[in-house]
Amino acid sequence: MIKTLIFDLGGVIVPLDFKRGYAAMERFCGYPAAEIPKRIGATDLVQRFESGQVGTGEFVAQMSNQLGLSVGYDDFCRLWMSIFPPGTLLADDLLEALARRYRLILLSNTNPLHFDALAANYPILRHFHRRILSYEVGAMKPSPAIYAAALAVAEADPQECFYTDDIPAYVEAARKAGIDAVQFVSQQQLEADLKARGIEW
């Protein structure tokens, strides 16, 4: 019997549009939008930021230098958040109903700039009982360590947990940890997978 539901954040609860972010950055840096992900990917700065190895101030300074961004801290934060379009992929009332019956855990590869803004602007996140964030636990999916951190607060055995993520490799890593996991496609699909497991709301 499923007791705990674990959800990814970006691409499951809130939408992600990296091209939207690159287009926003293009207006303030010396590189076209198509070049920006290459510049970001040429370093491991994002990975170090999202695993808690780099502080926010250092990240902003280094990333601004990497992209040739000549903006202040607040403007950088606004640009960094622009990958998140308005709205959510899941309805608030679905998570609210699930939270009344099950323990809800948020499990995300994220960074303090993104998460602080998301927590302030997406009230849907209030439904989660615990949050396992990569930068806080020092591990990123698909590392077994971040799934272990989620299970440590799940108040349930691995087989009593259900997980959904939009990235197949992260779903597979959860399954290796003994968690029942499915790839997220849509709310309709997720509801069908929940019902198939006897999860009610």
Task: Kindly describe this structure.
With 201 residues, the chain is of the alpha/beta class. It folds into 2 domains: 4-15 and 86-196, HAD superfamily/HAD-like (Rossmann fold), CATH 3.40.50.1000; 18-81, Putative phosphatase, domain 2 (DNA polymerase, domain 1), CATH 1.10.150.240. 47% of the residues lie in helices and 11% in strands. The protein has 11 helices and 5 strands. It has helices spanning 18-26, 36-41, 45-50, 56-67, 73-81, 92-101, 112-121, 134-137, 144-152, 168-176, 187-196, and strands spanning 4-7, 103-108, 130-133, 161-165, 180-183. The chain has a 5-stranded parallel sheet, sandwiched between helices. It is elongated, with a radius of gyration of 18 Å. The mean pLDDT is 96.
Q: What is the annotated CATH architecture of the largest domain?
A: 3-Layer(aba) Sandwich
Which structural category fits the helices and strands?
alpha/beta
Number of separate domains: 2
CATH topology of the largest domain: Rossmann fold
Coarse morphology: elongated
Strand elements, count = 5
Major pleated sheet: 5 strands, parallel
Supply the CATH superfamily name of the largest domain: HAD superfamily/HAD-like
Poorly predicted ranges (pLDDT <50, ≥5 residues)? none
User: What is the terminal separation in angstroms?
Assistant: 15 Å
Mean pLDDT over the residues = 96
Within the largest sheet, what's the order of strands?
A: 3-2-1-4-5
Q: Helix amount, in percent?
A: 40-55%
* CATH class label of the largest domain: Alpha Beta
Topology pattern, helix = H, strand = E: EHHHHHHEHEHHEHEH
Output the radius of gyration: 18 Å
Strand content: 5-15%
